[in-house]
Amino acid sequence: MSSPLRELLANLECRGRLGFGLVDGGHAELEAIAAKFAPAPAVKAQMPIDTTQYASLEDIRSHMGQCNKCPLHRGRTNIVFGQGPDNAKVMFIGEAPGAQEDKQGLPFVGPAGHLLDRMLQAVGLHRSQVYITNIVKCRPPGNRDPEAAEAAACRPYLDAQVKALEPEVICTLGRPAAQAVLNSTAPISAMRGNWQQAWGLPLLPTFHPAYLLRSPQHKAAAYQDLKALVRKLNI
Ligand code: URA
């Protein structure tokens, strides 16, 4: 027992014996003391998102609040939830926010994002027409790949985003996004350009724009992938 508590109890006992100062046999005071020394309540568990509900993107973001489901929340400046119209036909899924994204709270706004904008333009799309998000919504330290547990903790948000948006096609950008979404260990070179299914929707993995900045010789392949993505759309 802590010594302030011991002192208070001794004081109460003494006052009780002397027969004054204790209203209600001392219960009210004892309860007040107990409340003061009770351990702090545990952090309220987060309600899982009911992904069977077609919640709006806005609902999902507000449900997320200041999410602390994985350790990435400790180093973030902003949650990077996603950006784009809620009737977008194309959804891009990258891996994780970088420094610029963390600062601005928006996906793909750094150098990789600028290349993504140019790639979209090259196939007749504009960023304002597509929805862009990531498999994790908080920046990993030093821009490392998200860990499996971090991607798993964030997955209900991604599942709910896909259900809310119901895009016609999905495109994953880079290896970590394709592997996490498709639950695969295949290398990106084997996955890119090959249509898959996820959430019951057609999904095309392609290279990450950050990788293309380092390896521009693969830009032509990524261009072919985006052209295939546009051909799949009902436009
Ligand atoms: N890289 C990603 O995978 N996502 C972003 O939002 C930015 C860079």
Keywords for this entry:
single chain; 235 residues; alpha/beta; five-stranded mixed β-sheet; 10 helices; 10% strand; disordered N terminus
Largest sheet: 5 strands, mixed
pLDDT < 50 runs, ≥5 residues: 1-6, 8-28, 30-46
End-to-end separation? 72 Å
Would you list the SSEs in sequence order as H and E? Answer: HHHEHHEHEHHEEHH
Helix count, DSSP H or I runs of 4 or more residues: 10
- The number of E-state strands comes to 5
Could you tell me the radius of gyration in angstroms? 26 Å
Per DSSP, what share of the residues sits in E-state strands of 2 or more residues? 5-15%
- What is bound: which ligands? uracil
Order of the strands making up the biggest sheet = 2-1-3-5-4
- Counting helices, strands and paired strands, the structural category is alpha/beta
Average of pLDDT = 85
Overall geometry: globular
The helicity comes to 40-55%
Question: Secondary-structure map with pairings?
Answer:
Blueprint: H1 3-18, H2 27-37, H3 57-64, E1 90-94, H4 99-104, H5 111-122, E2 131-134, H6 148-165, E3 169-173, H7 175-182, H8 188-191, E4 196-198, E5 201-206, H9 209-214, H10 219-232
Parallel strand pairs: 1-2, 1-3, 3-5
Antiparallel strand pairs: 4-5
Helix pairs in contact: 1-2, 3-6
Please tell me about this protein's structure:
By secondary structure, this protein is α/β, with parallel strands linked by helices. The chain has ten helices and five strands; from the N terminus they run αααβααβαβααββαα. It has a five-stranded mixed sheet, with helices on both faces. Strand 4 and strand 5 form a beta hairpin. Helix 1 runs antiparallel to helix 2 and helix 3 packs antiparallel against helix 6. The longest helix is centred in the middle third of the chain and has 18 residues. It is globular. The N and C termini lie far apart (72 Å). The N terminus is likely disordered. The site of uracil has 14 residues, from helix 5.
